[in-house]
Amino acid sequence: MKITILLSLLSLSFSVFSQDTLKEEVSYVYESFAGTRVINNHSNECLPKNSLEFIVAHKFGDMLGSGGGIQNFFGFDNLADVRIAFEYGILDPLDVGIGRNKGVATRTEVIDGYVKYQILRQKTSGMPVSLVYVSSMALPYGRKILDSSSVKSYPRFINRFMFTNQILVTRKFHPRFTWQLNAGYHHRNFVTNNDVNGLFFAGTSARVRVTKMFGFLVEYNHVFNRPSALNAKNPLSFGVEILTGGHIFALHFSNGKGINENLFLSQTYSDWLEGQWRFGFSINRRFKL
User: What angle do CA 264, 267, 273 make, to 5 degrees?
Assistant: First the structure.
């Protein structure tokens, strides 16, 4: 009799523990964004542990303006930037990535890498937002030139490096709407005399999910202390996402040529109002290892 009572108590305790654990698991908010990027901005999403993601991203030339039009088939005859990358989930809240970029302007032949850590995760009750820290690095490895006035002269190897550190604050307000704010610091170890090494920036991104497979995306980054003499612009992008189950397709239009944040934050000179925007796309494929 005593054994029967003891077994009943143990069974009840296990049942309560299992229910509490299940409640804790389902209390998290999932899929604020479809992938680890919005368009080019990082999203709050991290890859699940032991997951590998392969990414191919392209941006073409100006669709309109003096550099676009039918003579360049609205930019498709020109390639602004291309990135091929792998990302891996070390832990559920921690992933890393490495990629290779064609690069833009004075920063070409670029290897990039990043680390992303999810500090806080939004819950259905209690925690209203997700908080994520992203640290990334880029290294242009192309041959240096002899012109000492050029940023590509690279007096020392360390002059090649660029870094970006940022915080992402994300809230999924509704199953169909997510809004994200980001702010950070972008540093280049070597710049021209009329430029500054460090740039402070803030941005915003949003996702509107129309159907299970289709959604709209927008992102914008504003650089605060860039010298006006450079005539640089702030990158603004609009796009759509198509989810097929195995792949994530993003189709977008942007005035930024660069794909990686270490490129588009400081190397955007195109103006939407002058038709200097381009079509781009990315394809993501995730594997469970």
Answer: 85
Q: Could you tell me if 182 and 205 are in contact, meaning their C-beta atoms sit under 8 angstroms apart? A: yes
CA distance 109 to 101: 6
Query: Ramachandran region of residue 76, left (φ > 0), alpha (ψ -120 to 50) or beta?
Result: alpha
Q: What is the C-alpha separation between 158 and 136, in angstroms, rounded?
A: 16
Question: Which amino acid is located at 154 in the chain?
Answer: Y
| Rounded Cα distance, 259 and 279, in Å | 12
Got the DSSP string for 226-250? Answer: --GGG-----EEEEEEEE-SSEEEE
Find the mean pLDDT for residues 204-233: 94
Written as one letter, the residue type at 218 is V
> For the whole model, what pTM was predicted?
0.86
**Domains of the chain in sequence order:** 31-288 (2.40.160.40)
pLDDT tens per residue across span 72-81: 899 898 999 9
